[in-house]
Design brief:
The protein is mainly beta. The protein is built from one helix and 30 strands.
């Protein structure tokens, strides 16, 4: 299944990725200013992503694979940071073994919680053992994201005991430091959403209210997956792929990255797809799902998602630990003039499609950016960026 980065039937691509709906959070720095001059700095939220991709072990499994939870930490990409990743056996009695690759023979750690110190995102592989019986190895990502610099908030005119402000006085708050975007709230209610504007003005404050600013890095929808918001490494890559054949030179995937927004996520997919071909990115985001491609077809026979039905009608089995819930479909026309993005909820009977938007190289939209000039299987920077509402791929609580 790791050969997923090649073009199936020279027509569509399959890529599987598991997300944790309860662990994907915004990477932000926060700063509060109390209207009666008390202030505090709140540290950055932690982003956690549950990563279970389609890499498999060459060893035949006779035990169920462990359940896993990935982890992350915030750093500068240079200093070593501790990240906790977790794995638990199906029966609770198995020995849990961690490895640096799918093929390495000696475990680097034994236990349910592994805490490596790393400076950039890395993938580890974990299996269950009971006597001489072992499971498949499940990949687990330890992610390092770049934290914004500290952000401070000042008020003008200033408010202090010697020169108190009267109710109704306009006050302008200015954020210094931080990242690309800023969000201002009063007593936890957002008053000015994420934007490049560092200033917030109000005349509606009362004594004791708290003004807070959040900051995070931005994604530019241009098909270049290089911004700081993507972290220090890919969450999936083509390291174990078969060599790219000449027939697949116009359709391949190299890596996957994720950037979390407030109620959305942006998927960054490095690679290329040309000439009426499509990418199928399957997501495992909640309990249940399909381990075999025997879900319901998309009923409308939309040509933009025809690869979805074709793949479904030629059943394939995902890895034992992967149960697909949703599929992101990226497709293009014969001339590669326009690219289209749809997300499909996999259901028994009829699967449900939601159109996200379209873009072209050099002509992005609010939800999609494309650069079709990926130079080959070692180019991890150019490809597709697609913004998706968390609610469309299984999140129940939009704050997570």
């Amino acid at each position: 299944m790791k050969k997923k980065l090649l073009l199936f039937l020279l027509f569509h691509l399959l890529f599987g990725f598991t997300l944790s709906s309860k662990n994907l959070k915004d990477l932000v720095k926060l700063h509060d200013v109390n209207f009666d001059v008390s202030s505090k700095l709140i540290s950055a939220d932690t982003i956690k992503k549950n990563k279970k991709s389609l890499r498999i072990s060459k060893t035949k499994a006779v035990l169920p694979p462990p359940s896993t939870t990935a982890g992350s930490s915030c750093g500068d990409g240079v200093s070593l940071m501790q990240v906790n990743v977790y794995a638990f056996g199906a029966n609770g009695t198995e020995t849990i073994e961690w490895f640096t690759s799918q093929t390495s023979t000696t475990p680097i750690y034994t236990g349910t919680i592994y805490s490596p110190s790393i400076s950039s995102t890395r993938t580890y592989y974990v299996r269950s053992r009971s006597g001489s019986d072992i499971s498949t190895r499940v990949p687990v990502v330890a992610s390092i994201y770049v934290a914004p610099s500290a952000v401070t908030l000042t008020a003008s005119p200033p408010n202090n005991t010697t020169s108190p402000l009267c109710l109704g006085t306009p006050v302008t708050f200015t954020a210094s430091g931080g990242a690309d975007l800023f969000e201002f709230s009063v007593d936890g209610v957002v008053m000015q959403g994420m934007s490049t504007n560092r200033m917030f003005t109000t005349n509606a404050l009362t004594d004791g209210q708290v003004v807070k600013v959040r900051t995070r890095y931005a994604v530019t929808m241009d098909g270049s997956i290089t911004e700081t918001s993507w972290g220090t490494g890919a969450l999936e890559d083509n390291f174990l792929s078969a060599p790219l054949s000449a027939n697949a030179s116009t359709g391949y995937l190299n890596s996957l990255k994720i950037s979390a927004l407030e109620d959305k996520v942006v998927l960054g997919i490095a690679g290329k797809v040309l000439n009426n071909r499509s990418i199928l990115l399957f997501l495992d985001t909640k309990n249940g799902g399909f381990n075999v491609s025997n879900y319901g077809d998309e009923a409308g026979s939309d040509p933009l998602v025809r690869a979805f039905n074709i793949f479904n009608n030629n059943p394939s089995t995902f890895d034992s630990y992967f149960q697909a819930d949703y599929c992101l479909v990226i497709s293009t026309d014969a001339a590669e003039t326009n690219y289209y993005a749809n997300v499909i909820e996999l259901r028994t009977g009829t699967s449900v499609k939601t159109y996200l938007g379209s873009a072209a190289t050099g002509i992005p939209s609010a939800v999609m950016g494309v650069n079709k000039n990926n130079s080959g299987i070692n180019d991890y920077n150019l490809g597709f960026e697609v913004e998706v509402l968390k609610s469309l791929i299984g999140w129940k609580n939009q704050s997570n």
